[in-house]
């Protein structure tokens, strides 16, 4: 059995689940993500979290010689249906013809198994501010009774990313106009200001690469290729971020002396 192409994927989903992935379903998906975003934005814990960022920054400054993280104000946004469908396609066929861990990702479970239906970004000035923010966010969201998880990614292609997730119960509409309660994960991506400045370029290149065939190491020796430039740029930026932290720490030490 051949792996379905992206074009064949909606038909494969319908055969597996009995749910037609058409314009009607896309409108339903948008209504669900809108409900999740609005419910989260209106929650007392989210409003308090936005205020807590100032306290996180103040504590970091006290422990780091007055250097601040300069947090942005994170705004929640909804994942597009096209991006969502593409992500389920990748995840479903990562072990083809076997299903992924946990079974096939289908319309009856995918609202809880895809972790970024609603997401946002937080930027920090310094690389060590990423782990610090992950720790502070985990303490905060667990203190208000929500489940959390986090991940730090580092790939040979120069892709570095820190993700924090929390989950809350949300009542959403069903396609038959009834309602149901689900537990969707909300994603917070944390990055440095330096990496965020060029993330649109590097992330797009990464997206294109991971939709292609398996890893090809030829780019590592082809300095003229786009992959060589984009991927090693990611490594260089990560190195610069780390070096900036070391220079900052040396500055603090000299000030103390």
List its salient traits.
5-stranded mixed sheet, 16% strand, Beta Polymerase, domain 2, alpha+beta, 257 residues, 50% helix
Describe this structure as you would to a colleague:
The chain is flat, with a radius of gyration of 21 Å. The chain has nine helices and seven strands. The strands form two sheets. It has a five-stranded mixed β-sheet with strand order 1-2-7-4-3. Strands 5-6 form a two-stranded antiparallel sheet. Helix content is 50%, strand content 16%. The longest helix has 31 residues. By secondary structure, the chain is α+β, with helices and mostly antiparallel strands. The chain has one domain: Beta Polymerase, domain 2 (2-Layer Sandwich).
Summarize the model shown:
This protein is an alpha+beta fold and 257 residues long.
Secondary structure tally, helices: 9
**Can you count the beta strands?**
7
Shape: flat
User: What is the CA-CA span between the terminal residues?
Assistant: 69 Å
What's the number of structural domains? Answer: 1
As laid out across the biggest beta sheet, the strand order is 1-2-7-4-3
- CATH architecture classification: 2-Layer Sandwich
The percentage helix is: 40-55%
CATH fold group:
Beta Polymerase, domain 2
């Amino acid at each position: 059995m051949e792996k379905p192409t992206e074009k064949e994927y909606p038909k494969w989903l319908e055969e597996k689940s009995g749910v037609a992935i058409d314009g009607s379903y896309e409108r339903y998906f948008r209504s669900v993500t809108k409900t999740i975003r609005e419910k989260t934005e209106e929650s007392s814990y989210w409003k308090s979290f936005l205020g807590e960022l100032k306290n996180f920054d103040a504590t970091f400054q006290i422990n780091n010689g007055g250097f601040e993280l300069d947090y942005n104000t994170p705004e929640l946004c909804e994942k597009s249906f096209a991006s969502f469908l593409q992500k389920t396609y990748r995840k479903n066929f990562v072990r083809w013809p076997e299903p992924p861990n946990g079974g096939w990702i289908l319309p009856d479970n995918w609202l809880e198994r895809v972790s970024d239906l609603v997401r946002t970004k937080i930027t920090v000035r310094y690389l060590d501010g990423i782990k610090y923010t992950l720790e502070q966010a985990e303490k905060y969201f667990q203190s208000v009774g929500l489940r959390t998880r986090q991940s730090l990614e580092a790939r040979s292609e120069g892709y570095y990313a820190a993700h924090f997730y929390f989950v809350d119960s949300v009542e959403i509409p069903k396609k038959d106009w009834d309602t149901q309660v689900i537990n969707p994960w909300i994603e917070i991506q944390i990055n440095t200001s330096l990496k965020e400045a060029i993330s649109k370029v590097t992330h797009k290149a990464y997206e294109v690469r991971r939709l292609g065939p398996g890893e090809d190491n030829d780019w590592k020796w082809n300095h003229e290729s786009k992959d060589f430039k984009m991927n090693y740029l990611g490594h260089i930026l990560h190195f610069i971020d780390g070096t900036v932290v070391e220079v900052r720490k040396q500055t603090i030490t000299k000030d103390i002396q």
